[in-house]
Amino acid sequence: MNIEITEVREGSHAVIPSFSFEAGLTGIYTDIKRTQIIMDQLKHRGYLHGNHEGLAMRLTVEETFRYHKDLSGRSVSVEEMVALFGLQHVKKTKVKNLSESHRNCLSFLRPYLYANEFLVIEEPFDRLDEEGRQVMTQLIRKMKDEKKTILLLGHNLEELLLMTDDIYRIDQSGFHKMDFNEEPAAAVEAEQPVIRIEKIQTKHEGKTILFNPPEIDYVESVDGSAQVNVAGKGYNCTLTLQELEKQLRPYGFYRCHRSYIVNLQKVREIITWTKNSYSLKLNDRESSVIPLSRAKLAELKELLGVS
C-alpha cells in the first residue's frame, strides 16, 4: 500500500512538501501545525485515532469490549481482548471511573477492531502511564504484524523511537529519513526541528518526580513559583517560568499568558468572553480553563492553524 501526501503551500513557502511512503510502521517527527495538516489530508484515506473516541461512560470495560466485538463481527473472545489490552483487573469497572491511562488504552479498541488497511495515530503515548505505553506498543506492533499500514505523528522523538526507527522529519525542502546510526552533523539546518530528549523535574510530598513534556497539561505561576499540572494534580518545580518556557517550546508548549504556559496539544477550545477577554479550555481530566492574553491570540491561532 502506497500513501501519498500532497504539497501544501502558504504563499511561496512549502509547509508540507509532497511525499509518499510504503506499507509498514512509519513515524513522522514534526510540529503541531504540520501534524494537523497531514491528518486533514489523510482523514478520508484511513482511520484517524483520537483518545476517548467512541467510549460510553456508563458501560463497564467488559461491556465495552463485548459491544464492539459484536458490532465488528470479530471472532476473538472478549476475555482474550481484555487481556491483550491489559485491563483484566478493571474489567468490571465503569469507563467513567477508569484512570485516564486506562481510558486511553480502551479507546484504542475501535481502531484495533475497525481499522482496515491504513491507520493514522497522533501522539500514540499521550497521557499513558508506563503500563499503558507497554500495552500500546504491543497493540500497534500486533497490527503491524497483521500487515496494516500505520503512520505515527508526533513531536516527541523519544516516544516515536519506542515504536520504529523508520522516522522522517519535515522541513521546506522535503521529508528526510532520520538515520540514528550516523554521527550528529556539525551544522544543523535552520528549518530542522530541535531534537531533545529530556524530563521535567518536580517535587511532590518529598519525592522527586520526572515527567515527559507531553504528559504536562499546563504550567502556572503560583505565589511566584512554577507549578506543573499533570492529570489534575499540581507539582512544584524549581525552574522559573522563563526556563520552563525555553525547555518546553520544542515540544509544542506556548506562553499564552504572563503566568501560564500551555501544552497546545491539550487545547480543546478558545473561549471569547468579551472583545478583549479570552481563555483556553483544555482537554485534560479537569477540563481546565486558563487565561489567554489578548496580545497572544493571533499568534496562538497561527500556531494551531485555525482562523
Description of the structure:
- It is a single chain.
- The chain has 307 residues and is an alpha+beta fold.
- The protein has 2 domains: 3-177, 3-Layer(aba) Sandwich (Rossmann fold); 200-304, LytTr DNA-binding domain (OB fold (Dihydrolipoamide Acetyltransferase, E2P), Beta Barrel).
- It has 9 helices and 20 strands.
- It has helices at 32-42, 61-72, 78-84, 100-107, 109-114, 130-145, 157-163, 241-248, 297-304; strands at residues 3-5, 8-10, 13-16, 19-21, 25-29, 47-49, 118-122, 149-154, 167-171, 174-177, 200-204, 207-211, 218-222, 225-230, 233-237, 253-257, 260-263, 267-274, 277-282, 289-292.
- Helix 2 packs across helix 3.
- It is globular, with a radius of gyration of 20 Å.
- The model is unreliable at 182-190 (pLDDT under 50).
Task: Please specify the SSE layout and strand pairing.
Elements (H helix, E strand, L loop, with lengths): L2 E3 L2 E3 L2 E4 L2 E3 L3 E5 L2 H11 L4 E3 L11 H12 L5 H7 L15 H8 L1 H6 L3 E5 L7 H16 L3 E6 L2 H7 L3 E5 L2 E4 L22 E5 L2 E5 L6 E5 L2 E6 L2 E5 L3 H8 L4 E5 L2 E4 L3 E8 L2 E6 L6 E4 L4 H8 L3
Parallel strand pairs: 5-8, 5-9, 6-7, 7-8
Antiparallel strand pairs: 1-4, 2-3, 9-10, 11-12, 13-14, 13-17, 14-15, 16-17, 18-19, 19-20
Helix pairs in contact: 2-3
Organism: Jeotgalibacillus malaysiensis
Pfam families: LytTR (PF04397)
GO molecular function: DNA binding; phosphorelay response regulator activity
